[in-house]
Amino acid sequence: MVPTLKALQKLGGSGSISEIYDTVLELLELPVEVVEVPHLSTGTTEVEYRLAWSRTYLKKFGLLTNSARGIWALASPDIQPDKINPAEVVRAVRDERPKDQPTLTETLELDDPEEKDSKTWEAEMREVLLALEPAAFERLAQRLLRESGFVQVEVTGKSGDGGIDGVGIAKVNGFLSFHVLFQCKRYQGAVAPGQIRDFRGAMQGRTDKGLFITTGTFTREAIKEATRDGAPPIDLMDGEALIQRLKELGLGVKIEVVEKVSVDRGWFSKV
Q1: Alpha helices (H) along the chain
Q2: Fewer beta carbons below 10 Å: N end or C end of the chain?
Q3: Where are the domains of the chain?
Q4: Could you confirm whether domain 2-114 is CATH 1.20.81?
């Protein structure tokens, strides 16, 4: 909790989750082997999971606020992180919980409170995607790219083509085009930087652009590896972005619009 507060101070009082994460890593000087430890029951790393809980406790205690856009901020510029006792924060938040609700465990193994209200159609979609056969998921990626404007999209995964699952041509403004190699991984955990490097190795000499699609997430180190200076760039699409893109394209979802009718009393007064 204290590093979270210090990170926000360093960021000027507010920041996105990714900015807070990167700043906390910088402040704590955490080694890569610690940063990449996955959390067993979520698609995040252990560090990301614990930071999510820290934000939640600090918000409930009144030290943090967050906007609908996912920006977190200090509730007051006068907060002194070194004078905050995390144990007191946890105790106060737990004491305020209704008696009929389960208490938070010492090991924080319950669902992340930042996500507990989002178990809607997105969660159902994620379950469906994870249940797909590998070949079916590759065909879904093919359809997704075609619907997004790619042409000549082919799935090559069955041939064991060096880790490349497919190829396609992206059209830009109707006259520019470039070849893209893609890899799609039906994955529940977080993709590590080593997998990004392996994908880039398979791309070597074949194209300057890659796309990595997964149902899971990417570790921060994997994201950095994908955009590393001097290396062919790799665009990343995680599970959340994949689900939202499927919704935008109307693939595998049904959107129902509910009609709401109200009486305009003012209109009748003018009759």
Answers
A1: 2-10, 17-28, 32-35, 46-60, 86-95, 121-131, 134-147, 193-203, 220-226, 239-249, 265-269
A2: C
A3: 2-114, 125-249
A4: no
